[in-house]
């Protein structure tokens, strides 16, 4: 095989029409806004749950220490 390899030349991809591109952009922006709102709601729930668990852990630790001290006496 003495002939050199040649690159495959593909036609240039036609540009997507501005209207379709703008519609996609607008759709993605609205989806982003709704997803951000959803994330904000979940984050606030998560924070509340996290602090509730934290309070319970503190209460349990305090009771365990009190029981331990009473058991020593």
Q: Oligomeric form of this entry?
A: single chain
The overall pLDDT average reads 90
Return the string of H and E elements.
H
Q: How widely separated are the two ends?
A: 96 Å
What's the overall geometry? elongated
SS summary, helix count: 1
Unreliable residue stretches: none
Percent helix: over 70%
Major beta sheet, specifics? none
Structural class, by secondary structure, is mainly alpha
Please summarize what this structure is.
This protein is mainly alpha-helical and about 70 residues long. It has one helix and no strands.
Molecular structure report:
It contains one helix and no strands. The protein starts with 17 loop residues before the first helix and ends with a helix. It is elongated. 75% of the residues lie in helices and 0% in strands. The model has no long low-confidence stretch (mean pLDDT 90). The protein has 73 residues and is mainly alpha-helical.
Descriptive tags:
73 residues; mainly alpha
List the helices and strands and how they pair.
Elements: H1 18-72
């Amino acid at each position: 095989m003495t002939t050199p390899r040649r690159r495959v030349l593909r036609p240039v991809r036609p540009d997507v029409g501005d209207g379709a591109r703008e519609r996609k952009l607008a759709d993605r922006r609205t989806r982003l806004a709704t997803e951000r709102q959803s994330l904000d709601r979940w984050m606030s729930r998560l924070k509340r749950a996290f602090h509730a668990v934290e309070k319970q852990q503190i209460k349990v630790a305090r009771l365990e220490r009190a029981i331990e001290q009473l058991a020593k006496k």
